[in-house]
C-alpha cells in the first residue's frame, strides 16, 4: 500500500540530499537517521541498517581523533538499532562511541548514558555478567560524581535502574528486584522541592 510508495520516496529524497551536500553533511545524516527509523518501524530492517552504515562510514572518514559529534551519532544509531532488535550492531556502535568519548571524558553524563545503554544492549544479547557489572558501575559512578546537570543525571539514573531491574527480573533474582525497583520508582517520580 502506501508504505510501498513511501519507501522509494524516502530513498529518493535521501539520495538527492546526499548528492547535493555529501553523505557526511549533518543534514544528510539527520535525514538518513530519520529514514532508518521509519524503515525499522515498517520492518525494513536491512535497508535501515544499510542507511545507518553509509551515514556513519561517511562521518568516520571526516572524524577527528576526539569527535564527540561522531560519538553522538554512534549513540543515536545504537538507539535506533536497539528499537529494531539489532543488539549486536548496537553494541558495536556503543563500544565505538565509548572509545571516542573515553578519550574526552569518562565521567561525563553522555559517557555514562552510553555505558548504561550498552549494559541494556548486552542484556538483550543475554550477556548477563557483563551487563550487570556495567550497570552497577554506572550506578556507582552516578552516586560518586557531583553533576550540575540534574535533569541529565536523572535521565542516566533512570536508564541505569531500568536496566538493573530488567536484568534481575530476567535472572529471576526477585530479592534484587525488590532492592532496585523502589530506587527506579523514586527516580521516575522525584520529589519536588
Compute the separation of the termini in Å.
Answer: 52 Å
Low-pLDDT sequence parts: none
Q: What order do the SSEs take from the amino end to the carboxyl end, as H and E?
A: HHHHHHHHH
The helix content is over 70%
Rg value: 18 Å
What is the helix tally? Answer: 9
Total number of strands:
0
The description of the largest β-sheet is: none
Structural category: mainly alpha
Question: What is the overall silhouette?
Answer: globular
Report mean pLDDT, rounded to a whole number: 87
Topology diagram in text:
Elements: H1 2-21, H2 26-41, H3 45-61, H4 68-83, H5 87-104, H6 109-124, H7 128-144, H8 150-170, H9 174-188
Helix pairs in contact: 1-2, 2-3, 2-4, 3-4, 4-5, 5-6, 6-7, 6-8, 7-8, 8-9
Account of the 3D structure:
The protein has 193 residues and is mainly α. The chain has helices at 2-21, 26-41, 45-61, 68-83, 87-104, 109-124, 128-144, 150-170, 174-188. The N and C termini lie far apart (52 Å). The mean pLDDT is 87.
Question: How would you summarize what this structure contains?
Answer:
This protein is mainly α and 193 residues long. It is 81% helix and 0% strand.
